[in-house]
Design brief:
CATH architecture of the largest domain: 2-Layer Sandwich
Strand order of the largest sheet: 4-1-3-2-6-5
Shape: elongated
Strand content: 25-35%
CATH topology of the largest domain: D-amino Acid Aminotransferase, Chain A, domain 1
CATH class of the largest domain: Alpha Beta
Number of helices: 12
Radius of gyration: 25 Å
Largest sheet: 6 strands, mixed
């Protein structure tokens, strides 16, 4: 038996954790496990301490770690250790407060408020030979902030913030290896595919009235959908930020008026489905597309809108709405994405405009909450993966009924707002509190 150092528990701590008396015990931080001496102190407080050699072997930093006893493995677990996986770390003095750079820096700042070790890392930082990671914490030095490196164990929990599908694919091997580490809990492991999500959600009967009719894009399917619905949306299955969406309207003269949404709006007309396919070949490329029913949605002051909901698990593992706001489409547009000109508005203000009475507003909020919960649970259970947060786009039709438009497993979050900074903070801290819960250290609040 290879013994390293010593862990000292006070008698009250030993009893509180229900640790049986023994000469030696395994001590774990993240995926690093060391066998050490166990010594009991006669002090009357709830505390523990480590010898210098044990702290060094476990890559313990100065920050305090919480303690729990894992009876199944007869192991004392110190933690949580939480790693945030990103493609790269920003290294600029000036950056857009709505950028991925700002998100990562804000996450690092919020992580300093969590008991335990919270750090950011990239795929190239992982050393599988000794189960360690070169992790980084951001320090706001005068003039220019810096990412400060340190060596940590491969963590208890990994929060995947890989920001693009291309990077996800590029680093897939390392990501898969991390997912299968013995003590790692890995959440939000991949981007979602619109067609796959639709197929999953249609297995839940209770969601049937909230899902737009959706099919894979073929000429026959497009023709069929245009006969059923006045308007359809042609969307890339793996698209985001509203890029590459095509709105198609069939006129009374059986022409197809369509609008391509990229950084701008391109309006065209086709005589039939064959011509539409030919004219949009460059836009669609070799990407997989779906065709989706256009909904008869309510409008806000004459403009189409949808609800963007940041749906997250908290420090007790429970789904909650962390942020809910309305995205109002720009003038002349039918797409509300903020990245292509949409404007954010307070949902309370829009609901008052639509539903008038407090009682009806309460009912509609409850309907939306139940819908979000059903979507999240169905998705998680069917995929057999762990999700800590989802971005849900919900439309409301002219009868007041909610419809799911899209689910995003990597929702963008801004670090600045004209509304509530408390809400902004919650959207960043809740995934870290959920990570603490996954590690075995639930937040007691």
């Amino acid at each position: 038996m290879n013994i390293t150092g010593k862990i000292i528990l006070t008698r009250p701590m030993l009893d509180k954790l229900s640790v049986p008396m023994q000469a030696y015990i395994r001590v774990r931080v993240g995926n690093t496990v060391v066998t050490s001496q166990l010594e009991v102190s006669n002090k009357d407080n709830y505390s523990y301490s480590l010898s210098t050699s044990l702290a060094k072997a476990l890559y313990i930093k100065k920050r305090p770690l919480r303690i729990r006893y894992d009876e199944k493995f007869n192991t004392i677990h110190l933690g949580p250790t939480i790693g945030i996986l990103s493609t790269s770390l920003p290294n600029r003095t000036n950056y857009d407060p709505k950028s991925t750079n700002a998100e990562l820096i804000y996450l690092s700042d919020i992580g300093k408020k969590i008991d335990g070790n919270v750090f950011l890392f990239t795929p190239n930082c992982v050393n599988f030979n000794n189960n360690t990671i070169k992790g980084y914490i951001y320090n706001h030095n005068p003039g220019r902030g810096v990412w400060v490196p340190a060596i940590y164990p491969i963590p208890d929990v990994i929060y995947d913030r890989i920001s693009s599908r291309k990077s996800e694919l590029k680093h897939n091997q390392i990501r898969q290896e991390l997912m299968y580490m013995p003590y790692v809990k890995y959440f939000n492991p991949s981007f979602l595919n619109k067609w796959d999500v639709h197929q999953i959600l249609t297995t839940e009967n209770e969601l049937s009235s909230n899902l737009p009719d959706t099919k894979e894009l073929t000429k026959n399917n497009l023709q069929y959908m245009l006969e059923l619905y006045k308007v359809v949306f042609v969307k890339p299955s793996n698209g985001s930020l509203g890029q590459g969406i095509i709105r198609v309207l069939k006129t009374k003269q059986n022409k197809l008026n369509y609008t391509i949404y990229r950084n701008n709006r391109i309006r065209r007309q086709a005589d039939n489905v064959d011509e539409f396919f030919k004219n949009t070949t460059k836009t669609r490329g070799d990407k997989h597309y779906i065709v989706q029913q256009g909904l008869d949605l309510a409008s806000y002051k004459g403009a189409p809108f949808d609800l963007r909901i940041i749906y997250q698990k908290n420090g007790k593992g429970e789904w909650v709405i962390s942020k809910k706001f309305v995205r109002v489409a720009a003038k002349g547009s039918n797409i509300s994405n903020l990245s292509i000109g949409g404007k954010a508005e307070v949902s309370r203000k829009v609901f008052r405009y639509l539903f008038k009475t407090t009682d009806l507003i309460t009912v509609k909020n409850e309907e939306i909450n139940l819908l979000c919960n059903k979507i999240a649970n169905t998705l998680e259970q069917t995929c057999n993966q762990i999700y800590g947060e989802l971005g849900l786009d919900i439309g409301i039709d002219k009868n007041g009924n909610p419809w799911l438009i899209e689910v995003n497993s990597k929702p963008r979050k801004t670090t600045e707002t004209d509304f509530s900074m408390t809400i902004v903070r919650n959207t960043f801290i809740r995934p870290l509190e959920y990570a603490s819960y996954l590690a075995g250290f639930p937040i007691n609040n």
